[in-house]
């Protein structure tokens, strides 16, 4: 019988990642539908201008941008609910 401490943290991480990705995808698809356009509403934050490190032989570019939409929040909530039932 599974105890409360026997759940795998990697399973939660993968479910959360899947919820964010699928939610973001659904949010992008719903932008064109007038009744579902609220799913694509969100905020984007991160580094707008990437940091470039030129080492002469190699150029490394650092950047991070995260877009959180209503659909991705719903996806995260659903993934947490699914994880609790596993």
UniProtKB/TrEMBL annotation:
Keywords: Membrane, Transmembrane, Transmembrane helix. The chain crosses the membrane at residues 51-83. It holds the Pfam family DUF4321. It comes from the Bacteria. The keyword Transmembrane applies. This is DUF4321 domain-containing protein. It comes from Dorea amylophila. The lineage of its organism: Bacteria, Bacillati, Bacillota, Clostridia, Lachnospirales.
């Amino acid at each position: 019988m599974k105890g409360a401490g026997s759940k795998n943290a990697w399973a939660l991480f993968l479910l959360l990642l899947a919820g964010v990705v699928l939610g973001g995808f659904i949010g992008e698809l719903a932008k064109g539908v007038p009744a579902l356009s609220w799913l694509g509403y969100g905020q984007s934050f991160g580094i707008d201008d990437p940091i470039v490190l030129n080492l002469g032989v190699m150029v490394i570019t650092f950047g991070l941008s995260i877009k959180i939409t209503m659909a991705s929040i719903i996806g995260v909530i659903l993934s947490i609910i699914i994880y609790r039932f596993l």
